[in-house]
Amino acid sequence: MSITQAFLDQLCVALGNGNAARPGIEAELREAYPGVVFSTCSDNDIPSRVRPLAAGEGFALYGVSTSGHCASLTMQREAAGGIAIALLDDDD
Fold it and tell me: What's the per-residue H, E or C state across 5-70?
């Protein structure tokens, strides 16, 4: 599955209302979107030079490239094979 703007918009709706921080959300997303890698982390763990592909209340979505030997963050939607859901702290 390719990471399109429509897909990111759909994720933002699904992760709204606090769902991004809900336990088990990664497994639910993997089941709903087979082939897409999902990971959750703190936005503080993301380097400040990397810009999110999309954002919602309390979270930002970053592209994850899985094409190389190691997974890495990418700001190019077309290169992303997964999504890092970065939870924002109240201080962010």
Answer: HHHHHHHHHHHCCCHHHCCCHHHHHHHHCCCCEEEEEEHHHCCCCCCCCEEECCEEEEEEECCCCC
Residue type present at position 5: Q
Handedness of CA 12, 14, 86, 7 (dihedral sign): negative
Model pTM score? 0.90
Q: Cβ contacts of residue 36 below 8 Å, gap of 6+?
A: 1, 3, 29, 30, 81, 82, 83
Q: How far from the centroid of its chain's Cα atoms is residue 24's Cα?
A: 14
Residues 48-82 have pLDDT tens digits of: 999 999 999 999 999 999 887 788 899 989 889 99
C-alpha 52/C-alpha 43 separation (Å) is 10
Beta bridge partners of 8: none
